[in-house]
Amino acid sequence: MKHLLAAILLLTLTGCAMSKGFDRNVLRERVSQPVTDTNIQAVLNLKPQLPKPFKLAIYVHNPEVFQRKPFWTEIEKNSLQDATDTLKQSGVISDVVFIAASVVQHNSEPQFNPRIGLHAPMPRVQELRLAAARYGADALLTVNGISSIDRYNNVWSLAYWTIVGAYFVPGTHSDALVMISGVLWDVRNEYLYATEEVKGGAQKRGPALILDDAEVIRQAKQVALTEFSHTLTARLTRLNGNTP
Predict the structure, then answer these.
(1) Structure confidence at residue 44 (pLDDT)
(2) pLDDT attached to residue 110
(3) How far apart are CA 195 and CA 232, in angstroms?
(4) Domains of the chain, residue spans
(5) Tens-digit pLDDT profile for residues 199-210
(6) Distances in Å between the alpha carbon of 112 and those of 63, 78, 123, 183, 213?
(7) How many CB atoms lie within 10 A of CB 196?
(8) What is the C-alpha separation between 149 and 147, in angstroms, rounded?
(9) Going by C-beta distance under 8 Å and a sequence separation of 6 or more, which residues neighbour residue 137?
(10) Nearest Cα to 145, choosing from 199, 185, 89?
(11) Which one, of 162, 203, 59, 207, lies nearest residue 120 by Cα?
(12) What pTM, to 2 d.p., does this model score?
């Protein structure tokens, strides 16, 4: 039995010696918003109508459950709060609120897909506009994120045949990619003001049984969040005409 368990462990550790890379198209499909307006002419007739300054409602979507935990932590959400505080101080927005999931009238349950795991669909734009209207907001910002891990072994993984090496030899790489998408809508008429998509990456090498993919994802997410906060601040400032 011990020999059988050892063989299974070694096959698991050495079975992914080559990097598979990231399927960025799959990530974009998962982070993209569904199309909700079929009348093109009606969309073309929409006009921007944001007051200056305007009240902003933010909906941060949890697209998947990673190790049975929400994709976004409170600390990560607070980084968006910091960006909006800067916008309030500069007079771009008058107030900001984060839409609670309990306010959104959305009945879709998380679905499991063998390729992408447990996935919660994004509520429809109309559902989120209704929730934003309950807060008295002028604009709605939806924030969605997704992650992917590319885990592979290097030549040092040959030491994993000793079993002990899987705890001490840095023969495994973990490369993380996080994509964050933001869309800014008018609450009253669904006019599309702006879209943003940023990417963040992180890499780490270590022993196969010690290397934590979740930690690498957190690092990549922080990189993406920092970039997203910077671009969000710049776009909203230009949108409200508070720059030369």
Answers:
(1) 73
(2) 66
(3) 9
(4) 24-34+48-239
(5) 999 999 998 898
(6) 12, 29, 17, 25, 20
(7) 17
(8) 7
(9) 55, 56, 57, 97, 187
(10) 199
(11) 59
(12) 0.76
Distance CA 222, CA 180 (A): 11
For residue 122 the two structure tokens come to 């994004």
Cis peptide before 70 (omega within 30 of 0): no
Q: What are phi and psi of 67, to 5 degrees?
A: 55, 40
How are beta strands 54-60 and 65-66 bridged, if at all? unpaired
54-60 and 139-153: which strand pairing? parallel
Long-range contacts, stretch 209-213, CB < 8 angstroms, 24+ apart: 209/13, 209/166, 209/167, 210/167, 211/151, 211/172, 211/174, 212/174, 213/149, 213/151, 213/174, 213/176
Q: Which CATH number fits domain 24-34+48-239: 1.20.950, 2.60.40, 3.30.70, 3.30.160?
A: 3.30.160
Smallest Cα–Cα separation from 169: which of 11, 18, 13, 3?
13
The rounded distance, in Å, linking the Cα atoms of 133 and 239 is: 21
Read off the amino acid at residue 32: S
At 162-192, the pLDDT tens digits run: 888 888 888 899 999 999 999 999 999 999 9
